[in-house]
C-alpha cells in the first residue's frame, strides 16, 4: 500500500497521484518530487507490513477511487465550515445569556437588568421645569431581577456596619502647623464697617509690576485670562494710598454654596448673582479649599504646584473693588453706614471632597483624615454662612453618571457600575470605619460611580462639629423646583439681604433653569427599576439619619 504523506490519501496501485491538490502543480514531475518518490518518509509496521507514519487507517475499495480527489479538495473548506458553525453557536448562546443590546459578547455579564416601568425624575441639577412623575417602559426584553437578592446581601452588610460617630475636632494650633503660610496671610480680624470679611493689605509693587503674573488660575487656564487681563487694567485705580504706601483691599466670601454636585447649585448660583447686594468670585467653582491648594487640577493627572492663598484671594478682586468704592463713599465715611455687599463662592466640592488629605496630612486615626476642609474655613471665618442644596441621592447619582461618563452610557452600564461600586464599598466598611471609607481617596477613585457623594448626612455631621446649625441652610432641589420663589426667599432671609422690588424679584425667580440635562442624555431614558430599588435600599439608612438631624421627613425622599 502507498500513501501520500501530505494529504494522507490512500493511493491505489494504478494511481499516479494526479488527484492530490497539494502534491501536484502544473510543473510537477513524479521523478523529481521527493514526496512522490518516497524520500524522507518514516515507515511504520502494522501486522508485519510496512506503512507510512501519517497513513489513514481505513479500508478503500477500487470503486472509491473517484472520491479521493473530492475529499482532497473539500477537506479544508469542510473544516472551516465546522469551525464557523461552532463559533456562531457560542456567540448566540452568549447573546441569549447576557441579553446584550449593543453587541455580541463572548463573556457573559455578571449583572442583569429588569424590564419594567420606571418612575424617573427628570431633574438633573437642574431640570426644574418638569417635575411630574412619568412612566416609561424599558427597552429590555429580558428580566434580570434575580440580581437584586445577591446585591441586597451586600447592602445588608454595609447597613450593619453603619455607625455615626462624632469626630474629634482639631485645635487651632494643630491647624497652624499644617498651613503656616495661610495663617500668615489671612488676619484674624476684619474691617468693622463691612458686612463681608475684608481687610487692607500693603502692596509693595510698582506701576510696572504685574500683580497677577504668577496667579495659577491665569497660568493654567486660558478661559480665565480675559478676566485677569481686565483686572490688570483697573488694578492701580483701586489701590488705597495712605502715607506714601499702597494698600489693596482683600476679601474672603461671606457665604459658601458647598454642595452637592448635580443638586441645583448652578441654578442657585445664577439666581443669587442677580441680587444687587451679592457678588461672586470671578470663577464660579474655584475648588481651592478642596483641590487647588493641594496642587490638584484633576487628581488622575497627578499633582501640580500648589495654588497659594493669594491666588484664591485674587478671584475676589472684582467684588473687592466694588466694596472699596462703597467704603470710600461719603455715606460710609461721614454717616457711619456699613457696606452691605457680600461675596459668595460656589464650589460644589467643598462639602464632601477631602480626597487629598492622605497625601499631605500625617497622624491619621484608623484611616480617617485628621483635618477636614471645614476645620480651616472655620479657623479663619467662624461666622461664615453655608448653603447646601440636596436632592434624592438615587436620582443625583444617575444624573452624575450621565454628566461625567464619556462613552457607552446606558441604563444597563449604569447598573453594572452601581453593582461594582457597592461591592467595593462593602469591602471597605468590613475593615474600616464609615468615615474612613467616605474620605478614602483610593476607594473613591476606584468606584465607577460616586456613591459616596450621596451620603449627605456623613458630611453634614462633620460640618456640624465646627459650625453651628443656624449657620447652615439645607435646601432640597425638589422644593426649589416646585416653589422657587419660596426657596429664594429662604436664602435671602438666611443671608440677611435687603428687600427687592417686584421687578428684581421677578427677574430672579422667573428666569429659566440653569444647567439642565443635555438632550442626548435625556434620550437614554431613566435608570432600570432594579437599579433604583438597589440604590433606594443603600441610601435609606443615611436618609433616615439625615431626616432626624434636620427634623424634616422630606429628606427621606419617599416621594420624589
From TrEMBL:
Residues covered by the Sulfotransferase domain: 253-517
The organism's superkingdom is given as Eukaryota
**Gene Ontology terms, MF aspect:** N-acetylgalactosamine 4-sulfate 6-O-sulfotransferase activity
This protein's UniProt keywords: Membrane, Transferase, Transmembrane, Transmembrane helix
Q: What is its EC number?
A: 2.8.2.-
Please give the biological process terms from Gene Ontology that the record holds. Answer: hexose biosynthetic process
Q: Gene3D superfamilies given for it?
A: P-loop containing nucleotide triphosphate hydrolases
Q: Where are the transmembrane segments?
A: 78-97
Q: Quick check: keyword Transmembrane helix in the entry?
A: yes
- The answer to keyword Transferase applying to this record is yes
- Coiled-coil-forming residues are none
Family note: Belongs to the sulfotransferase 1 family.
- What is the recorded name of this protein? Sulfotransferase
Q: Tell me what organism the protein belongs to.
A: Ploceus nigricollis
Amino acid at each position: 500500500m502507498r500513501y501520500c504523506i501530505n494529504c494522507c490519501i490512500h493511493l491505489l496501485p494504478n494511481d499516479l497521484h494526479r488527484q492530490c491538490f497539494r502534491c501536484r502543480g502544473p510543473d510537477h514531475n513524479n521523478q523529481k518530487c521527493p514526496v512522490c518518490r518516497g524520500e524522507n518518509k518514516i515507515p511504520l509496521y502494522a501486522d508485519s507490513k510496512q506503512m507510512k507514519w501519517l497513513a489513514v487507517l481505513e479500508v478503500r475499495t477500487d470503486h472509491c477511487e473517484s472520491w479521493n480527489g473530492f475529499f482532497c479538495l473539500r477537506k479544508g473548506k469542510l473544516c472551516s465550515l465546522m469551525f464557523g458553525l461552532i463559533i456562531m453557536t457560542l456567540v448566540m448562546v452568549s447573546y441569549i445569556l447576557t441579553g446584550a443590546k449593543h453587541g455580541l459578547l463572548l463573556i457573559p455579564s455578571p449583572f442583569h437588568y429588569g424590564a419594567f416601568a420606571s418612575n424617573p425624575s427628570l431633574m438633573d441639577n437642574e431640570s426644574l421645569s418638569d417635575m411630574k412623575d412619568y412612566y416609561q417602559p424599558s427597552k429590555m426584553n429580558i428580566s434580570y431581577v434575580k440580581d437584586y437578592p445577591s446585591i441586597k446581601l451586600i447592602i445588608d452588610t454595609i447597613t450593619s456596619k453603619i455607625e455615626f460617630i462624632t469626630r474629634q475636632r482639631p485645635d487651632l494650633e494643630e491647624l497652624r502647623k499644617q498651613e503656616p503660610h495661610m495663617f500668615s496671610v489671612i488676619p484674624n480680624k476684619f474691617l468693622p464697617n463691612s458686612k463681608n470679611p475684608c481687610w487692607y493689605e500693603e502692596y509693595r509693587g510698582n506701576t510696572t509690576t504685574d500683580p497677577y503674573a504668577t496667579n495659577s488660575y491665569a497660568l493654567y487656564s486660558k478661559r480665565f485670562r480675559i478676566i485677569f487681563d481686565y483686572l490688570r487694567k483697573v488694578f492701580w485705580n483701586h489701590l488705597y494710598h495712605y502715607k506714601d504706601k499702597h494698600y489693596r483691599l482683600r476679601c474672603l466670601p461671606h457665604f459658601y454654596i458647598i454642595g452637592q454636585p448635580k443638586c441645583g447649585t448652578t441654578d442657585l448660583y445664577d439666581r443669587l448673582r442677580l441680587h444687587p447686594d451679592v457678588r461672586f468670585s470671578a470663577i464660579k467653582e474655584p475648588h481651592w479649599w478642596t483641590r487647588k491648594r493641594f496642587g490638584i487640577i484633576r487628581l488622575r493627572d497627578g499633582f501640580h504646584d500648589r495654588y497659594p492663598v493669594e491666588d484664591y484671594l485674587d478671584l475676589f478682586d472684582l467684588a473687592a473693588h466694588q466694596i472699596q468704592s462703597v467704603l470710600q463713599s461719603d455715606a460710609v465715611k461721614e454717616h457711619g453706614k456699613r457696606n452691605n455687599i457680600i461675596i459668595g463662592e460656589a464650589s460644589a466640592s467643598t462639602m464632601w471632597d477631602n480626597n487629598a488629605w492622605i497625601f499631605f496630612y500625617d497622624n491619621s486615626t484608623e484611616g480617617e483624615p485628621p483635618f477636614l476642609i471645614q476645620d480651616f474655613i472655620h479657623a479663619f471665618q467662624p461666622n461664615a454662612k453655608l448653603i447646601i442644596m440636596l436632592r434624592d441621592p438615587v436620582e443625583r447619582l444617575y444624573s452624575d453618571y450621565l454628566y461625567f461618563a464619556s462613552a457607552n452610557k446606558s441604563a444597563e452600564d449604569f447598573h453594572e457600575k452601581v453593582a461594582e461600586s457597592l461591592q467595593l464599598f462593602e469591602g471597605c466598611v468590613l475593615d474600616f470605619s464609615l468615615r474612613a471609607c467616605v474620605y478614602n481617596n483610593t476607594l473613591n477613585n476606584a468606584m465607577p460611580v460616586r456613591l459616596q457623594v450621596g451620603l449627605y448626612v456623613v458630611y453634614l455631621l462633620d460640618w456640624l462639629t465646627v459650625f453651628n446649625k443656624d449657620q447652615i441652610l439645607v435646601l432640597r432641589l425638589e422644593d426649589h423646583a416646585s416653589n422657587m420663589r419660596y426657596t429664594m426667599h429662604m436664602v435671602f432671609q438666611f443671608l440677611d439681604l435687603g428687600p427687592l422690588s417686584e421687578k428684581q424679584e421677578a427677574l430672579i425667580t422667573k428666569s429659566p433653569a440653569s444647567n439642565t440635562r443635555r438632550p442626548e442624555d435625556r434620550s437614554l431614558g431613566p435608570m432600570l427599576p432594579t437599579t433604583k430599588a438597589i440604590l433606594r435600599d443603600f441610601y435609606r439608612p443615611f436618609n433616615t439619619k439625615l431626616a432626624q438631624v434636620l427634623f424634616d421627613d422630606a429628606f427621606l425622599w419617599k416621594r420624589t
